[in-house]
From TrEMBL:
Low complexity compositional bias, start-end: 356-373
Organism domain of life: Bacteria
Protein's name according to its UniProt entry: YrpD family protein
Name of one Pfam family that matches: YrpD
Stretch list, region Disordered: 349-373
InterPro entries (UniProt xref): YrpD, YrpD-like_sf
Gene3D superfamilies documented for this protein: 2.60.120.1270
Length: 373
């Protein structure tokens, strides 16, 4: 009997050894157009042998760059988990569930990298070539954003768009809470793309916040508020290719209309010896993963940045609600508010800057309410 126990023990140890050895695969051996990479290859925090990073590399970037990005994404997410402070707002979100989505564009403006860490599924990484991929979400269009270049004192109708804008003094970090429009029926009827967001003005224009993905006869959208970041007028972030590239990795998920979304926007965020313009959004998403295969409302933190875009010189921060389009005359209605506005931690009272004829905005302390029509 004792010998039988020893024999069984030896068999079990041998099986464990073989299983552990099979997981020690180098990234160079497994990273391809579609591959699965063991989590311990990239030293994930959970160190669970059952966890995997599924890599989809349609841009065919090098194994070295894939490895570097995954390490960077995990570092960024780990950092944000450490710095996240409990608050009344975060406690309102779904407890014990969260998704982290990290978007990054390389310094050559060529490839969009995406990493998703979800408590409900294994992590994924996707790399998309911004120069070659085709449209995924036809509801997403590149806005002319003509109101941003108008004279700040001008209250004339805005060609190609409608909306209102306020400004606050510059600093390094703008924080606010966006109360999104929850009138899905009206949002789907709007002609043009609906936005509520912040940004900065100066030698470079930046827009950072939310755009609505509408569902109607012309657009096959998902009826959610999706993250939006535009840097300059000719950068990939601002083009139709970039927005479609975003949908190629983000698919159906987004923030639920009518919910609050916390926005943090840095003009110059330095990490790993790289200076970036960084957007971070936190709120309640429609699904528990990017494909919505798990349609359970879940807390979603989105971090978006582009290598080398950090700037030290801006004229002011801006706060806007708009409906805009390059092909048709925009029309419709957006009702949203932006509250708890701070710059580098200090409350700031917005100043009215520009609006279209029938639109209005109401300012109270460090909050602003928009009625765009």
């Amino acid at each position: 009997m004792e010998e039988l126990k020893k024999f069984i023990t030896v068999i079990i140890i041998g099986m464990l050894f073989l299983e552990t050895s099979s997981l020690k695969i180098s990234a160079a051996d497994v990273v391809g157009t579609n591959s699965t990479v063991t989590a311990n290859t990239y030293t994930q925090d959970n160190n669970s042998l059952a966890s995997f990073v599924k890599v989809t590399n349609t841009a065919n970037v090098s194994n070295q760059n894939v490895n570097k990005f995954i390490s960077q994404a995990q570092s960024v997410i780990k950092e944000n988990r450490k710095t996240s402070q409990p608050s009344e707002f975060s406690q309102m979100l779904v407890a014990n569930k969260e998704i982290y989505d990290y978007f990054y564009i390389d310094e050559d403006n060529k490839d969009l990298y995406f990493y998703e860490d979800s408590s409900n599924s294994n992590p994924i990484a996707k790399i998309v070539d911004l120069n070659t991929r085709s449209s995924i979400d036809t509801s997403v269009k590149s806005s002319s954003n003509s109101m941003y270049t108008q004279n700040l004192a001008s209250l004339a109708p805005i060609s190609g768009g409608m909306g209102a804008r306020a400004t606050v003094p510059s600093g390094n970090l703008l924080e606010a809470r966006i109360h999104t429009d929850g009138n899905i029926k009206q949002l789907n009827l709007n002609k043009g793309t609906s936005y509520t967001y912040v940004g900065f003005t100066g030698s470079t224009e930046a827009d950072a916040g939310l755009q609505y993905s509408s569902l109607n006869g012309q657009s096959n959208g998902y009826q959610v508020w999706k993250p939006y970041l535009k840097l300059g007028s000719s950068d990939p972030w601002s083009t139709n290719t970039m927005l479609n590239g975003y949908d190629a990795v983000q698919f159906q998920n987004g923030y639920i209309p009518g919910e609050e979304v916390q926005v943090s926007f840095w003009k110059n965020y330095v990490h790993d010896n790289v200076s970036t313009t960084r957007l971070k959004l936190q709120g309640l998403a429609k699904c528990a993963n990017s494909t919505c295969s798990n349609a359970s409302p879940t807390k979603l933190a989105v971090i978006m940045e582009k290598n080398g875009t950090g700037t030290s010189n801006i004229a002011a921060y801006k706060i806007l609600a708009t409906i805009a389009d390059t092909d048709i005359k925009a029309s419709g209605q957006v009702n949203s508010s932006v509250t708890n506005i701070t710059v580098d931690g200090a409350p700031k009272t917005p100043t009215q800057a520009a609006k279209s004829t029938n639109s209005s905005m109401s300012i109270s302390s460090n909050s602003i309410t928009f009625n765009i029509k």
